[in-house]
TrEMBL record, chain A:
<keyword id="KW-0472">Membrane</keyword>
<protein>
    <submittedName>
        <fullName>Uncharacterized protein</fullName>
    </submittedName>
</protein>
<feature type="transmembrane region" description="Helical">
    <location>
        <begin position="39"/>
        <end position="60"/>
    </location>
</feature>
<keyword id="KW-0812">Transmembrane</keyword>
<keyword id="KW-1133">Transmembrane helix</keyword>
From TrEMBL, chain B:
<dbReference type="GO" id="GO:0003677">
    <property type="term" value="F:DNA binding"/>
</dbReference>
<dbReference type="InterPro" id="IPR013249">
    <property type="entry name" value="RNA_pol_sigma70_r4_t2"/>
</dbReference>
<dbReference type="Pfam" id="PF08281">
    <property type="entry name" value="Sigma70_r4_2"/>
</dbReference>
<dbReference type="InterPro" id="IPR014325">
    <property type="entry name" value="RNA_pol_sigma-E_actinobac"/>
</dbReference>
<feature type="domain" description="RNA polymerase sigma factor 70 region 4 type 2">
    <location>
        <begin position="96"/>
        <end position="148"/>
    </location>
</feature>
<keyword id="KW-0804">Transcription</keyword>
<feature type="domain" description="RNA polymerase sigma-70 region 2">
    <location>
        <begin position="10"/>
        <end position="74"/>
    </location>
</feature>
<comment type="similarity">
    <text>Belongs to the sigma-70 factor family. ECF subfamily.</text>
</comment>
<protein>
    <submittedName>
        <fullName>RNA polymerase sigma-70 factor (Sigma-E family)</fullName>
    </submittedName>
</protein>
Length: 386, 164
């Protein structure tokens, strides 16, 4: 034999192309460990004394060899944030990711995750930029927490991935529901619909999966197209109606389960539900050819009363950015001069405040992908089809 | 040799070793990253840099076994393309089947097979990486092969001679 075993191992090893080595990240993590050890050494005497005092009440935890977050949640606060070129403007802080250009990004409590101009995934936090050696079209993150997710494409299937930025490791990677049938051209690829607490929602080719991140197990909860469900927040699922017509579905329903008979109470295509599911921001027009997403007419709904508040028409194009909390979200508004303002909006009152005036221009590169100089933390790039 | 030179030159080999242990590219990447960080931290204590690779492999192995014990990666290995039984032991189907069966072995047994039949380490060298006795290595390899033989069937060729 031995040949079969040797051949099998050699074949698998040969087929495992190593990802790029991120030496900077290794050295940075190593230096953090060294610093912690030095600090612990200095504190050792005091800690030992305290341990004796509380010894009977202390549970000794097993040593955890998995990567641990180096510092407590440095980016937990949501501030008016945008990316411009190779800088992320996080409130008053400017975080450089040079030489990479940011096409799309999301915020997690542990750092920002972005796609560069080649759709490669990178993380940037207080220790700098590190590439993951992976690629994706879009990124998805929760309103809180350190998780980010994406769908990764291969020749014959996609894989749904959930990554913990704080721990620097993948928590979920599964091809479930995403086998591409032979000789098929997909109208819509798989997407990660949402991360909602400890559940991730995968919009797969087979339908919508709810995936328990803690147990790494999932279940198919709706036989719908990968893009039929827009988002899930606080257990509330936002999905299009009619369910079977992704190109013409222009109404949205919110419910605990996906149902074709649910009442459609909201107008819109894109949907951004506030962290407590209190308000829903939608955009009704983005099925039109043109700049995508074309959020030129943001609508704001109170989800309990379905009361509609329209956005002031001072801007020609509107782009949703991020919920700061359950009462305020950030958007970008392009004026007729193409100057873009960053706005803070309060749906309850309809109040709009300019947070950063004229931070960029709504102009597009002349070669594909035609994207503007700026990006907002939705995980998706803004682009122009023409 | 500096740490950077070591990491750059041996990263590929370490990643392949980790992949054979973990059976998953993402986990292999995590394992190598974790092990290289530990090697970097202990670099000044590795009096002979030529020991660095053995040390890093040992960290990969023990970390992998530890993660496995905490069941942190057991779920969802893709197996949709695996046939019920290998048809021809010489063709690629047999290797696909064997690879799947290797994933089901306990981590120490799988590590022992990888070290012996991929890395071509001797039994004493394998014992050093696994942190156990030579006798334990022999029994781990023997038990692993017995399981594979049972699962794969007699015509799929894991002969007793494999143990040496």
């Amino acid at each position: 034999m031995n040949d079969l075993l040797r051949d099998t191992l050699a074949e698998r090893a040969d087929g495992a192309e190593p990802p790029p080595l991120d030496l900077d990240a290794i050295v940075a993590a190593g230096n953090r460990q060294i610093s912690r050890r030095r600090a612990l050494t200095v504190l050792g005497g005091a800690v030992a004394t305290a341990a004796v005092a509380v010894g009977t009440a202390t549970v000794i935890r097993p040593h955890n060899t998995q990567p641990q977050p180096a510092r407590p949640i440095p980016f937990a606060q949501r501030r008016p944030t945008f990316a411009l070129g190779n800088n992320i403007h996080y409130g008053d802080d400017v975080i450089s990711v040079a030489p990479y250009k940011i096409n799309a990004f999301v915020q997690t409590d542990a750092g920002f995750v972005f796609l560069d101009s080649g759709n490669k995934i990178h993380i940037v936090d207080r220790d700098g930029v590190r590439g993951l050696g992976k690629g994706a079209w879009t990124l998805t993150a929760d309103h809180r927490g350190s998780l980010v997710a994406w769908a990764e494409g291969f020749n014959d299937h996609y894989e749904s991935v959930v990554y913990d930025v704080a721990a620097d490791r993948e928590l979920v990677r599964t091809p479930v529901g995403n086998k591409i049938p032979p000789n098929v051209s997909l109208a819509y690829g798989p997407e990660i619909v949402a991360i909602d607490g400890t559940d991730a929602y995968f919009g797969t080719l087979d339908g919508l999966y709810r995936w328990d991140i803690t147990t790494n197990k999932g279940e198919l909860i709706a036989d719908v197209s990968p893009v039929a469900v827009r988002t899930v927040v606080a257990g509330q699922i936002v999905y299009q109606l009619p369910l079977s017509q992704p190109l013409t579905g222009t109404s949205l329903a919110i419910a605990k389960t996906v149902s074709a008979t649910a009442p459609a109470r909201f107008t819109g295509q894109q949907a951004f539900l506030s962290p407590g599911a209190k308000y829903l921001v939608t955009e009704p027009d983005d099925a039109r050819p043109g700049i995508q997403p074309l959020w030129a007419d943001l609508l704001m709904y109170d989800t309990t009363t379905a009361r509609l508040t329209r956005f002031p028409r001072a801007y020609e194009s509107m782009f949703f950015g991020q919920w700061l909390d359950d009462e305020t979200f950030v958007a970008a508004g392009a004026r007729p001069s193409a100057e873009v303002d960053l706005l803070a909006v309060t749906p309850r009152t309809g109040a709009v405040k300019v947070a950063v005036p004229g931070f960029s221009k709504l102009t597009f590169s002349t070669t594909a992908p035609r994207i503007p100089p700026f990006a907002l933390p939705t995980g998706k790039p803004i682009y122009d089809l023409y | 040799m500096s740490f950077a030179e070591f990491a750059t030159s041996r990263h590929g080999a370490l990643y392949r070793y980790a992949y054979l242990l973990a059976g998953d590219r993402g986990l292999a990447e995590d394992l190598v990253q974790e092990a290289l960080v530990k090697t970097y931290v202990g670099w000044h204590r590795l009096r002979d840099p030529s020991n660095a690779e053995a040390y890093t492999r040992r960290v990969i192995t023990t970390t992998a076994i530890g993660w496995w014990r905490r069941k942190s990666w057991r779920a969802e290995l893709p197996n949709g393309d695996v046939p019920d039984r290998p048809v021809n032991p010489d063709d690629v189907t047999a290797r696909v089947w064997l690879w799947q069966e290797l994933q089901k072995l306990p981590p120490r047994q799988r590590a022992a097979l990888v070290l012996r039949y991929y890395e071509d380490l001797t039994e004493p060298q394998t014992a050093e990486v696994l942190g156990c006795s030579v006798g334990t290595v022999k029994s781990q390899v023997s038990d692993a092969l017995k399981k594979l033989r049972t699962r794969l069937g007699a015509d799929v060729v894991l002969k007793a001679g494999m143990t040496e």
